[in-house]
Design a protein that fits this description.
Blueprint lengths: L2 H11 L3 H16 L3 E7 L4 E12 L2 E8 L2 E10 L2 E8 L1 H16 L3 H12 L4
Length: 126
Amino acid sequence: MDLELAAASLRADGTDVRILVKVLADRLSDALGPRLEVRKSGGRLRKSDGPASIRISIEDDQFEAVVDGNSLRCTIGHSSGGIRIRSEKVDVDAWLARLLAVLKAEAAHSQSVRQALESIVIGGSP
């Protein structure tokens, strides 16, 4: 699977950062289940369909992207024994590349993750 093609596909779908986060959430939700957390924008009085953030936990890594106006604040954290030992701020391209690399490794063992990655590369429904 060509990770550069997958990242390019996501960036093309996500010219608006909210759309990028929504596309990721939609395409990975079934494959990742509870390892994917999406927080919606809005407050108690006003709910929105637009996502405010996405957090993906795979093994000891946590990938988080928070919508901040027209940009994304991306971090990658690493835990050991349930304790976060490192957290690194990265740009969107680095975040996508590392997330897709981890997903690609997991896809070797998971049919649903492989299908989700194929939907990212090919487009369309997961």
